[in-house]
Design goal:
Length: 160
C-alpha cells in the first residue's frame, strides 16, 4: 500500500467525501430537528445559521468531489460507465441533490424567519412551520437515496 497509488488515493478521497456528505447531513438534520422541538426561537435562529454555514463549508465541497472522484475511479478501474448499478447511482444522486438544493433554500428561510421573530419579539410565523415541515419531508427521500447509494457502491451489482 502506498500514497502514490492513484487508485487507493482516489478511493480514500471518495470514501472520505462520502463520509462528510452523509455525516454532515445527518448531524445537521439531527441538531436542527431537536432545536425545533425545543421551540426556543433564538436557538433556532442560531442553529439554522450554523447549518447554512456547515452546508457551504462541508456539504457543497463533498457534493462536488463525490461524482468527480467517482467517475475518476470508474475510468481508472475500467468499469462500464453505463452499467445498470451505476445508472441507478446517477438517478439516486440526482434525486438526493434536488432535495438538498431545495433544503438549502428552506434553511435560509427558516433562519431568516427565526431571526426576524427574535428581533421583532413575536412567535414563529406559520411560514416557519410550513418551511420546517417541508425541510423534514425532503430529508427522508434524500437520506434513503444516499443509504441506497452506499449499498450499491459496496455490493456493486452488475458492475464489477
Ligand atoms: C455520483 C457518482 C458516483 C460514482 C460514479 C461512483 C463510483 C465509485 C467507484 C468506481 C468506486 C470504486 C469501487 C471499487 O473500488 O471497485 C466507488 C466506491 C465507493 N463509493 Fe462511489 N461513486 C459515486 C457516488 C457515491 C456516493 C454518493 C457515495 C456515498 C455517499 C459513494 C460511496 C462509495 C463508497 C463507500 C465506496 C467504497 C466501496 C468499496 O470499495 O467497496 N459513492 N464509487
Amino acid at each position: 500500500m502506498s500514497f502514490d497509488d492513484p487508485y487507493l488515493l482516489l478511493k480514500a478521497i471518495h470514501i472520505l467525501s462520502a463520509t462528510i456528505l452523509f455525516g454532515t447531513g445527518l448531524g445537521t438534520a439531527f441538531h436542527m430537528w431537536l432545536t425545533h422541538l425545543k421551540g426556543d426561537t433564538s436557538a433556532i435562529a442560531v442553529v439554522a445559521g450554523n447549518v447554512v454555514l456547515a452546508d457551504w463549508l462541508f456539504t457543497l465541497p463533498a457534493v462536488i468531489v463525490q461524482p468527480f472522484s467517482g467517475f475518476a475511479l470508474v475510468y481508472l478501474i475500467g468499469y462500464d460507465v453505463l452499467a445498470p448499478g451505476l445508472l441507478a447511482v446517477y438517478g439516486l444522486y440526482g434525486l438526493a441533490g434536488l432535495c438538498w438544493i431545495r433544503v438549502v433554500f428552506l434553511q435560509y428561510r427558516i433562519r431568516d424567519l427565526a431571526r426576524r421573530a427574535v428581533a421583532e419579539g413575536h412567535a414563529l410565523p406559520p411560514a416557519y412551520h410550513r418551511a420546517i415541515r417541508e425541510w423534514f419531508a425532503l430529508g427522508g427521500p434524500a437520506f434513503l437515496a444516499v443509504l441506497a447509494i452506499f449499498w450499491i457502491m459496496v455490493a456493486k451489482p452488475g458492475w464489477a
